[in-house]
Amino acid sequence: MSAARPQPPVLLVHIGQLVTPQGSEPLRGAALGKLEKVEDAAVLCVGGRIVSVGSTDAANRDPWVRQHRKELREIDCEGKLVLPGFVDSHTHPVFAAPRLTDFEKRIAGASYKEIAEAGGGIRSSIAGVREASRAELSRQVLRGFELMAAQGTTTMEAKSGYGLDVESEIKSLEAIREAGRQFPGTVVPTLLGAHVVPPEFADNREEYVRLICEEMIPQADERGLAWFVDETELIFTAAWQRNFGARLHACQFTPASLHSLLKFNLASVDHLDCVRDPDIELLAQSSTVATLLPASNHFLGLSVFPPARKLIDAGVAVAVATDYNPGTAPTPSMPFVLSLACTHLKMSPAEAIGAATLNGACALRLADRKGSLEAGKDADLAVFNAEDYRELPYWLGVDLCSMGVMNGYVWPAGEAGKRAVQDEDD
Ligand SMILES: [Zn+2]
């Protein structure tokens, strides 16, 4: 889903360094670190699509550009860096409030269990979502999308999963749809009805699974509210029958066998901190993307991170995403995740960028439209106040993104967008 409004053609010129992966296939092994680089580059976007990528000189000589110069919105990037907009393929933006008290308690040494027993943890997010109106939730979701966009993300997956009853999960998906309609980027909704078993079904898990399969999934389908379902085997069968794509949280804290699940043609398996060797081989042979979420390891203060090197070297298609959520990863920033990917996952800056763009798009089954800067793909890109792509993971905690283009829309919109580009050299 994305906002559909008319937009003037956009021509970006004098891009100091344009860096992009190529193609629509998942990047594996050595291919993950291979990026195309163009200096003094230009990108022409018409009708929400990229029409050409090349040098500024070539764009200035282009007969179509010469003929339509007056209608074009021309943006002088003044030597800045341009990348494909990030594809954040794993986020949980539907929550009512941050968990600040839990944060303080955990710093002081409280365990997950102690926090949960005091009424914190996911229970507080469930209560918050159940009590909130759809309008309140959609404002929160939109704010999350805007924070992500400010860091260079142009496509984001968005999961429900803090409502955990039929009404609240549908309300959460409606909030995602409403926020998506007010936002020029691309939003991919996922039903995560079994994030955890809600407290009222603690002694009756089967009944809750039945509710998901027989009520949540059919309602989400009939109302066109989700593209994917993120769940367990029983639930995948129900989702499969209704043509939902499937994705999975797996092996975050405890190992699980992926063997029986890969038959569902999963778009993505996410976390994989403790994935086992035989499953790495299965993943390498499958089209399933392994999405790594190092911000949650960082925020929880863990010393163990997902085994990115092992996965990449085995030929698994690896993506990275924020896991934006109020409990374990309150960050909307893909540049921060790139930094973690380099420092803790031992990925090279080029590999991290491939994982955050084209492989993220593969994880959402959108690689024919997203994830690289090539003619024919959607006009999704991000401009950074940097000269070299390696600066993105290098400068820690610095907001380098100065503007973006999402489906042909300049972001921030209007004059503010132009000013954001021009003021930065002051
Ligand atoms: Zn998650």
Could you characterize what this model shows?
- It is a single chain.
- By secondary structure, this protein is α/β, with parallel strands linked by helices.
- 36% of the residues lie in helices and 20% in strands.
- It has helices at residues 56-61, 63-68, 100-107, 112-117, 122-131, 134-149, 166-181, 205-222, 233-241, 277-285, 294-299, 308-313, 334-343, 349-356, 358-363, 391-394, 414-423; strands at 10-20, 36-46, 49-55, 73-76, 81-84, 86-88, 153-159, 186-191, 228-230, 245-250, 268-271, 289-292, 318-320, 381-384, 401-406, 409-411.
- The strands form two sheets. Strands 1, 2, 3, 4, 5, 14, 15 and 16 form an eight-stranded mixed sheet that branches. An eight-stranded parallel sheet has the order 6-7-8-9-10-11-12-13.
- Mean pLDDT is 93; it is low at 415-426.
- Residues 90, 92, 249, 323 line the site of zinc ion (ZN).
Query: Cα distance, first to last residue?
Result: 37 Å
**Which regions contain 5 or more consecutive residues with pLDDT less than 50?**
415-426
Largest sheet: 8 strands, mixed
Number of discrete helical segments = 17
Overall body shape: globular
Helix/strand class: alpha/beta
Count of distinct strands: 16
What ligand species are in this complex? zinc ion
Percentage of residues in helical conformation: 25-40%
Task: Tell me what portion of residues adopts beta-strand conformation.
Answer: 15-25%
> Radius of gyration over alpha carbons?
21 Å
Mean pLDDT: 93
